Amino acid sequence: MHLSKNYNAPNFSRVYIEKGVVDHPNTRKILSKIKPKHSIIIDDYAQVFNRNNQNYMMQKNAVQCILAEKKFHFYYDGSPYCEDFEQEKFYYCSPVLNCLYNCHYCYLKALHPSAHCVIFVNNDDLICSVKEDLLQDGQPVYLALSYDSDLLALEGITHFIEAWFPLLRANPHLTIEVKTKANTFPFAQVPDNLIWAWSLLPQTLIDYYEPRTPSLAARIQAIRQAQRGGARVRLSFEPLLPFPNLVSHYQEMVSLLAQYLDFNQIRDINIGGFRISQKQYKKFVKTDPNNPVLVHPTILKENTHTFSEDLIQSKVLKSLLTSYFPEEKIRIFS
Which residues pair with 237 in a beta bridge? Predict the structure, then answer.
């Protein structure tokens, strides 16, 4: 249940620390891992994160870290733009704001004024809030833990995911999903009710839309590590995006997956298209006008921007996957 020794900590040269968490145990642990050149004490993370006239895209080239305390809103109702897997009690938590990666299609650039990474060190308060507010009636709860960041990519400095393990083991009616593109899986044993949803695309699309993220081969290797540890892995193909000769790229990707993964150990498969609200799309365009995603015209349907090809792409990919995996366990969300 421990992190691999070869884990590389994020390169944060500067860390802003709320004065109220300077002595928090997680603050000390995180600082010991990242060893920043500069540490700056601030009153409140909003002083840095919510400043006016920030250049999000410029900040993405040199992301800094902010260590803070989350004082309220420990969990939220699930977003309609996210797959709820037919769960009535669907929520998400945001122990971290913003992601180390810079995927061109990411909605975070339309959500936050800053690209810097906020880590709320009081992760235990989030866990207690979920336990006390959501789990007392014994009804099934589905909790997404990493929509606003890739928590597994940060696990080496935070250990936030591992901190949820006792609650998961004590509450089988709680299911947690962790979405990731990570190239490592640092746990030997994990709870059965923790779903690891690996985001996958053909390597050509990763190069084009997901620069500086782990390669497809590295993600496959991480999934293999997870499967050896008995993890319940979900393959998540989203967002599907326009690209020349897509069918051949999908065929190559599916062949690689079939060659290296044990599909008998795959929990299920999720396929989804690009989708962003009309309001966020305007901010998306303003923040990153040279984004390659914008080369392709979107359609507006029910206040949501998406691509007209999404459903066709989804069906093509599903047909390729059904050669190796039961059709009833493949879901299309668009």
Answer: 271
Q: For the chain, what percentages of helix, strand and coil (3-state, to nearest 5) are there?
A: 35, 20, 40
- Taking 70 as the pLDDT cut, the residues of the chain under it are 1-9, 80-85, 334
Q: What is the DSSP string of 139-155?
A: --EEEE--SSS-HHHHH
- Determine the 3-state secondary structure of 199 from DSSP: strand
Which pLDDT tens digit goes with each residue over 57-92? 999 999 999 999 999 999 998 776 566 667 789 999
With beta carbons less than 8 A apart as the criterion, state whether 95 and 73 touch. no
Distance separating alpha carbons of residues 103 and 159, to the nearest angstrom: 24
Domains of the chain, each with CATH number or no CATH: 71-96+122-333 (3.80.30.30)
Q: From residue 255, how far is each of 249, 252, 261, 320 by CA, in Å?
A: 10, 5, 10, 9
Residue 211, preceding peptide bond in cis (omega within 30° of 0) = no
pLDDT in tens, 283-313: 999 999 999 999 999 999 999 999 998 889 9
Closest alpha carbon to 126 in 100, 144, 153? 144
Tokens of 149: 């960041």
